[in-house]
Amino acid sequence: RLMITMSKIRTAVQDEFKLNIKRKSRKHIYVVARTVYFKLCKDFTDYSLQRIGMTLKKDHATVLHAINNIFESWIFCKNYNVNDKKYINTYSKIKKRLHTDLESIQKKSHMPFDYKDQALFWRRKYLRSKNKKRYMNAVINYKTRYCK
Fold it and tell me: Distance of CA 109 to CAs 1, 2, 52, 104, Å?
């Protein structure tokens, strides 16, 4: 499964909010930006809450609180509060941008190239042409080392 990296998500959020979300601040705009970042990371990656929080030096409880309480309250109150509607729209805008990036990544990587298999193929071909005994020793060494 292809994923957007957390650094791309962080860059998208920082571009949209025009601030550094790694900064240690409790100002409202920073909390909002971090909440959007946490929600997008949860949507686009398979990482745990602990790992998502570690990117901003926060613990898993902070991430969980942001996703379950702050973000959900925006959705609940978006019809009554103009700011909450604005934050949801910003989240949707960034999510749309990341979906476009994900689609372009999927188009580029329709056939992944396996370099390990290619290297093994050429190594075998080279050793086979050089010396049969040497080739057999290389295969035995490879199997004992990597195929356990």
Answer: 11, 9, 25, 9
Tell me which H or E stretch contains 7: helix 6-17
Q: Which two tokens stand for residue 90?
A: 């910003």
CA-CA distance, 84 to 70, in Å (whole number)?
10
Q: CB under 8 Å to 76, separation ≥6 — which residues? A: none
Please report which confidence band the pLDDT of residue 17 belongs to, taking 50, 70 and 90 as the band edges. very high
Q: Which two tokens stand for residue 11?
A: 């860059």
Q: Which residue has the higher pLDDT, 134 or 62?
A: 62
Residue pair 12/94 in contact (Cβ under 8 Å)? The answer is: yes
- The predicted-structure confidence for 33-45, as pLDDT tens digits, reads as follows 999 999 999 999 9
Give the predicted TM-score (pTM) of the model: 0.70
Q: Are 71 and 129 in contact (CB under 8 A)?
A: no
CA distances from 5 to 2, 32, 70, 106, 140 (A): 9, 20, 23, 14, 39
